[in-house]
């Protein structure tokens, strides 16, 4: 289950394959589950993007409200970096 889901958390994508090797997981089994996890991760993020696009959120800068979204995201990133 860990191999299937480690794609969804940032740094576990680096540690996951190494941990699988340390635990002597057979390569064929790991590759099958790892590819399934990568496909699930990709489908999930594409689904989120599609849903946001269908809801009217675009990356087009001609939209008036998008400037506020950009600034809000910048502030959130800045606050998260400052809290570290």
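Q: What amino acid sequence fits the structure above?
A:
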């Amino acid at each position: 289950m860990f191999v299937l889901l480690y794609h969804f958390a940032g740094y576990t994508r680096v540690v996951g394959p190494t941990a699988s090797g340390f635990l002597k997981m057979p390569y064929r089994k790991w590759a099958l589950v790892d590819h399934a996890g990568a496909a699930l991760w990709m489908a999930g993020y594409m689904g989120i993007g599609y849903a946001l696009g269908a809801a009217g959120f675009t990356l087009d800068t001609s939209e008036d409200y998008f400037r506020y979204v950009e600034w809000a995201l910048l502030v959130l990133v800045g606050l998260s970096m400052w809290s570290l």
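Q: And what stands out in the fold?
A: The chain has four helices and no strands.
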